[in-house]
């Protein structure tokens, strides 16, 4: 199918990319079973050099599903996963889905307060957590519906030689062991023992349907209040099928580097579910470390690397310094933040492949637009709508009115990868999801005559740092409780390879004599906020600019901060 006046972007598609896809009428787990049948001896997961074939992975998934079933996990139950990328994360994800239960992903570095809110909101009955995270969950478990807390010893996921090395009585081994381990909370179950002792789930146990909920992914959307985006098996499966159509990868041949966190929608789909859909090898990294990535490249070379701009810059710098060979990486996908032409050109020179930019939201599973995987890609542009995806650009104040071609307006998206709404948030669903399936993104774009969209601005004043969203109101709320702070505005300013950095403009309380400096602010924020949300700069101001109705004008604050710089 080639272009129509209503769908101008189709003319810019790469050869062989279809205009539409057929949304899969099956549970996500079917893709894992197919991969195990077609490529049983192919490595499915490589974590720190420990390789697991598809046959072995499926066997372990079925045992893990049996273990969860024995604990009483049923169809539709929510099961929290709060793990860094690791072998267990992959197994736990597929095991929960095999039972028809719902995966609720959490950032394992979150504070107890942040975890409490999300766990209570989802009503999760079980939580599979990294040991240090399990300790924080245990602090608030009584305020949730959790019946089972399951702790994961990450060292058990390592190859035997690395586990033995951690026991050596040398400072380096002790330091690494301390970074990976934590005390198991009283009453918590131990994941690896639980799975080892379990019987596999019966083949007769019913699977989920395509329209069952697969995951709840917490996001701020276009506001600062965390809420769970509900994604069905069909929704996530559709996005994997769209990705396969867009990249035209060959089944059973690719190696995907999982440097993006699986708890984030970007990493969950582009790495974890996409790998199973195409029978790829997934190389999982517990954290992003350029030296570790290049070491893995020597051991098991990548063909596809999804990431964010700072990752490509840091990998490029180290590869240039060490002479590392990146020539196997044919396609890399950048998302979450704009990528510069200089970054793209540098990466493409090193790899000989393409670095393309994509765009999406947690609410779109997550990818909705992408640059073509050809020389026609445009660094800095969001790209073209994926197959079976439609876009509109509308008036920012009235989403029923389309703007003229080439004019800026709010981006609306419709397609099979669009979520079904927020968990227990009917009023917000009505605001975000318009009639006929259109999703309001809150992003202002311009779309040219060829269908390429370019981001102009964000309607809401969220900050994107290192690919993560920071909502100023949340940081401000916590800082206002800090002794000596009378008022505060939080803004984002250009932050080099981080995209933006968080800056707090603080008005001091004249009645107090506090010792407030950046270190104190960071310590205070670190008690309740994720690390990426902690301010990296502090500006003391006499007052904050306000509108006629008293609203702080963050735009003006940002301009003032930039002027000071």
TrEMBL record:
Coiled coil: none
Domain named AMP-dependent synthetase/ligase: residues: 34-423
Native source species: Cellulomonas chengniuliangii
Domain (AMP-binding enzyme C-terminal) ranges: 474-551
Name assigned to this protein: AMP-binding protein
């Amino acid at each position: 199918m080639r272009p129509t006046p209503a769908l101008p972007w189709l003319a810019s598609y790469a050869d062989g990319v279809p205009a539409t896809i057929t949304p899969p009428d099956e549970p996500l787990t079917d893709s894992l079973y197919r991969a195990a049948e077609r490529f049983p001896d192919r490595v499915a997961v490589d974590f720190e050099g420990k390789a697991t074939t598809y046959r072995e992975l499926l066997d372990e998934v079925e045992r893990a599903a049996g273990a969860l079933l024995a604990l009483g996990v049923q169809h539709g139950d929510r099961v929290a996963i709060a793990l860094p990328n690791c072998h267990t994360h992959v197994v736990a994800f597929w095991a929960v889905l095999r039972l028809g239960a719902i995966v609720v992903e959490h950032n394992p570095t979150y504070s107890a307060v942040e975890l409490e809110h999300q766990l209570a909101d989802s009503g999760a009955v079980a939580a599979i957590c990294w040991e240090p995270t399990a300790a924080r969950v245990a602090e608030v478990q009584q305020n949730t519906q959790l019946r089972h807390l399951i702790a994961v010893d990450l060292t058990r996921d390592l190859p035997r030689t690395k586990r033995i090395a951690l026991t050596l009585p040398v400072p380096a081994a002790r330091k690494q062991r301390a970074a990976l381990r934590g005390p198991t909370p009283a009453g918590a179950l131990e994941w690896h023992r639980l799975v080892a002792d379990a019987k596999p789930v019966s083949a007769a146990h019913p699977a989920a349907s395509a329209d069952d909920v697969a995951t709840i992914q917490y996001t701020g959307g276009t506001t600062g209040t965390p809420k769970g985006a509900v994604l069905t098996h069909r929704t996530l499966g559709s996005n994997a099928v769209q990705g396969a159509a867009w990249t035209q990868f060959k089944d059973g041949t690719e190696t995907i580097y999982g440097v993006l966190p699986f708890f984030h929608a970007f990493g969950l789909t582009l790495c974890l579910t996409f790998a199973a859909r195409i029978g790829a090898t997934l190389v999982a990294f517990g954290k992003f470390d350029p030296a570790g990535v290049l070491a893995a490249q020597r051991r098991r070379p990548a063909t596809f690397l999804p990431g964010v701009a700072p990752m490509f810059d840091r990998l490029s710098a180290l590869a240039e310094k060490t002479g590392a060979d990146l020539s196997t990486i044919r396609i890399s996908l950048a998302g979450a933040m704009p990528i510069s032409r200089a970054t793209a050109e540098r990466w493409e020179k090193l790899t000989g492949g393409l670095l393309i930019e994509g765009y999406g939201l947690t609410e779109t599973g997550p990818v909705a637009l992408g640059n073509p995987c050809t020389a026609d890609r445009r660094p800095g542009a969001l790209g073209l709508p994926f197959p079976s995806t439609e876009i509109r650009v509308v008036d920012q104040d009235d989403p029923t009115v389309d703007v003229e071609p080439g004019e800026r307006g709010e981006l609306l998206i419709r397609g099979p990868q669009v979520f079904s709404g927020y968990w227990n948030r009917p009023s917000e669903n009505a605001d975000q999801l318009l009639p006929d399936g259109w999703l309001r993104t809150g992003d202002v774009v311009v779309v040219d005559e060829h269908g390429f969209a370019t981001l102009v601005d964000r309607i809401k004043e969220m900050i994107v740092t290192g690919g993560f969203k920071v909502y100023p109101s949340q940081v401000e709320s916590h800082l206002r409780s800090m002794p000596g702070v009378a008022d505060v505005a939080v803004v984002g300013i250009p932050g080099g390879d981080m995209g933006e950095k968080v800056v707090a403009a603080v008005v001091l309380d004249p009645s107090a004599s506090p010792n407030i400096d950046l270190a104190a602010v960071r310590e205070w924020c670190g008690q309740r906020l994720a690390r990426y949300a902690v301010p990296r700069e502090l500006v003391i101001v006499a007052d904050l600019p306000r509108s006629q109705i008293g609203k702080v004008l963050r735009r003006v604050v940002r301009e003032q901060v930039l002027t000071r710089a």
